[in-house]
## 1
Amino acid sequence: MVADGPPPARPTQAGQTPRKRKPQPRQKHIPQRTCIACKQVRPKRELIRVVRTPDGHVELDPTSKKSGRGAYVCARRSCWNIALHKGKLEREFETTLSAEDRAALEAYEASLPPEPPTAKAQR
Ligand SMILES: [Zn+2]
């Protein structure tokens, strides 16, 4: 029986650069961000970006394309609760939410499903 060994190395062709430089890492490297509420580091796509726009509004940025200062919050009600109602977001952005912006963010918070079953729901 032959033991599982590494496959025979391919001869490197002249003129071919060894695979060292990757132009764009895809899939492998997942950008991580920290939730301002729970401080957990998560993959960026699991977090919701909130942005303070140059004109002073604080709004959701689902596409991460808006310019301005960004902060990330988990897509979890508990985190939004902290971010919105404990002043985390305002502190993060060093601003005061306008009633209008707050209403929009609260509407988002309300649209989130109730807390997913985590440790609490475990038998
Ligand atoms: Zn969080």
## 2
Amino acid sequence: MKQVILSLIVITHCFTVASGQSSCLIYASPDKLDEANIEGIINPAKGNNGVGSSARQYFTTIKGSKEDLLIIQFEQTIDVAQFMVKVNRLAFPNYLLIHLRQLSKHQNIHLFKPKIGMDRQGILNFFLDQPEVLSASWNAPVQFRDSIPNDELYDTQWNMERIGAPKVWEVTTGGTSFHGHEIVVAVLDKGFDLTHPDLFANYWRNEAEIPNDGIDNDDNGYVDDVYGWNFRQNSPIFPVERHGTSVNGIIGAVGNNGIGTAGINWNIKMMPLAIEYVDEVIAAFDYVLEMRERYNQSNGAEGAFVVATNGSFGIDGAPCEEYPQWGSMYDPMGQAGVLSVAATANQDWDVDQVGDIPTSCESEFLITVTNTGQDDNRADGSAFGKETIDLGAPGESTSTTSLAAGYREDFSGTSSACPHVSGAIALLYSLPCALIDSMALTSPAAAAAMMRDAVLKNTAPIASLADETVTGGRLDVYEAMKYLHAYCIASESEIKEGNFKELYLGTKDLIRVRPNPTSDFLYIDYSSLDFRPLRIRVYNMLGQKMFSDRHVEPMPFEEQTIRLNVNDWPSGVYAVNLFDLSRKITFKFRKD
Ligand SMILES: [Ca+2]
Ligand SMILES: [Ca+2]
Ligand SMILES: [Ca+2]
């Protein structure tokens, strides 16, 4: 038996130190290190069956997690066995260093199991101090950049892939803005199931209101409005309706919780407002306006950070002028920072001709939506309008939440298309852009206009929508994210020129060095096609490479700038080259 063990684990060195304890070097593969083996090796005096306390200790160490393993890269000429003899003798009299395996022959990188007991930084510093060691790091698990949620029905949610949501989810899955403001979408609808297990956590809660005490604690005119308000019955208790429950699932079904569907926002706060008549719609909008103005005025201490309203309703064929009071609500909400998104009629007609409330209303803070199918064409029986209807969004046979803690795969119509857009606005507010988030409280109307532009200037062009919508396209939240990324890193003059997305992420060949001439530091601003990696090199006029090949991978919402220290370069002219698969751009600068 012992021979079998020794064929799997090889003791290379054992020596006795001053304390009388043994220190050994062991070569082994991790799967061979079981308790009996280690005890037999470490305590040979006790025989193979001896169980000593020190052995127990070693065993515990060896069975520890993979995070307790050390990755060390040595100079090419270093012999690892000799190195281990040295460190065990010199530094750790009682130390057991186990060489688990070679990770890279070419780079001389090895995996070790050191004895724990001293602090991790101390162990790391010790190894980093050794001249043979090029680098040392504790092992760590990698994070999978998989942005596909684990919700059971996600396979049926064709609409999410279509609007580019998974690529945005790599950056954010919603919830809060850069400075931690809790993002709220107000949903005006007939009724809601607040108890649905895939929605419950994502409902807004009015923290300033004490429930069931019969008092209007926050003095907004509504008693006990803890989750919003039911304007239909003038009550804090909501009617339960499938329509509103399905709309909410598109905006914000809890994502990646293993059940049901994922909303465009995996995390969000939805404010339900039950409405049925025009008077209730107006009162509900006023509720939203009051809450958002309170938030702006109190710098987030009161009210709610409502960034969008969702209106999957209207009155077919009625021009906006027929209900001017309703139509007048969108501008003041916009001034407070709230974009409103409205579904147009489920009728095969031209809203430019027949009119519609609200989708023929004129407000720069109102976004109007028609319904597109899996073929990206306008779905049969959905209204259109080259002057009135802004864009299309998926709305045919979408999967979402339904009544009785259930789901449906048949939610169709402009009612389904609309929450894709309101949900997208909320998701965009959660992107890591300090600039836009600051604007949201200091210049809320400008922030709202910025978000509207992000959505409407970045639709996916669809030929059949060219004459049927203002933008000629279908919602694309990933393209909208790219627009905001570029906006966040662009200079003021680039923002004024308005072509910042093209400049930083499009086919424009930006490579800019500043200052030029320079004497110490050189900043290189570069463009990338769709965040694709590229290489940057700098040559002198003799063609000698001054700056070694750098592999650059632009990350969303990080500056596309490289800083070089050219302080000790000779004076003269240099060339910066930028390469990717399809481009090679050169730019010259002078070093004084
Ligand atoms: Ca109240
Ligand atoms: Ca109360
Ligand atoms: Ca879910």
